[in-house]
Amino acid sequence: AQKITQTQPGMFVQEKEAVTLDCTYDTSDPSYGLFWYKQPSSGEMIFLIYQGSYDQQNATEGRYSLNFQKARKSANLVISASQLGDSAMYFCAMKYNFNKFYFGSGTKLNVKP
Amino acid sequence: KAGVTQTPRYLIKTRGQQVTLSCSPISGHRSVSWYQQTPGQGLQFLFEYFSETQRNKGNFPGRFSGRQFSNSRSEMNVSTLELGDSALYLCASSPRGASVEKLFFGSGTQLSVL
């Protein structure tokens, strides 16, 4: 069975500091995609970053980077230079078999001024 | 380019009623998937459509159904509503539904069942 685990229900970070959100996954499928989404209070899911299972290098998108450790089955999101607008729920998700996503339970990030 | 549009934004229904939610994907996207989000169960996959065909289905009862039209717009129907169906229903689209494609989500429909 596929599974995504986010062990941090909530986190606080000081503005301008970096923060790491943890995500581990479990799959026997060799081909999969790992995604991070941000969900502000408005409810919309905003795509942040993607890592393919065959990608050799860690993905980066602006202030977001994904620390992909395939052997450990982890895909942690690193946000550098946190901003107040980063306060939101963050979901790690794994995708395989067309558009069937498995989402983690989410991490609520609060950025303090 | 317009994003994924979901209507209505909010819905209030009573137990036993049925409801239809609508989703218009990004122009050119042929894959549409639906998700249910609740505080207790988190985000759960409902089903995915591509070219008017359901390709994938999550573990939901038959009261949950959907369809996709030739213009890729999709509808989701829930019959005989139960209190536990209260949730945020999110629709997402992607060009083909391939595993490497990111999903673009709509703002969701917040359904409250009284």
Descriptive overview:
- The complex is a heterodimer of chains A (113) and B (114).
- By secondary structure, chain A is an all-beta fold.
- Chain A is 0% helix and 54% strand.
- Chain A contains no helices and 12 strands.
- Chain A has strands spanning 3-5, 10-14, 19-21, 24-26, 33-39, 46-52, 60-61, 64-69, 74-79, 88-96, 100-103, 107-112.
- In chain A, the strands form 3 sheets. In chain A, strands 2, 5, 6, 10, 11 and 12 form a 6-stranded mixed beta sheet that branches.
- Chain B has strands at 5-7, 10-13, 19-24, 31-38, 42-50, 53-57, 64-68, 74-78, 87-94, 104-105, 109-113.
- The mean pLDDT of chain B is 93.
- Chain B is mostly beta strands.
- In chain B, strands 2, 4, 5, 6, 9, 10 and 11 form a 7-stranded mixed beta sheet that branches.
- The interface between A and B is medium-sized, with 27 and 28 residues.
Helix-strand blueprint:
The complex is a heterodimer of chains A (113) and B (114).
Chain A lengths: L2 E3 L4 E5 L4 E3 L2 E3 L6 E7 L6 E7 L7 E2 L2 E6 L4 E6 L8 E9 L3 E4 L3 E6 L1
Parallel strand pairs in A: 2-12
Antiparallel strand pairs in A: 1-4, 3-9, 5-6, 5-10, 7-8, 8-9, 10-11, 10-12
Chain B lengths: L4 E3 L2 E4 L5 E6 L6 E8 L3 E9 L2 E5 L6 E5 L5 E5 L8 E8 L9 E2 L3 E5 L1
Parallel strand pairs in B: 2-11
Antiparallel strand pairs in B: 1-3, 3-8, 4-5, 4-9, 5-6, 7-8, 9-10, 9-11
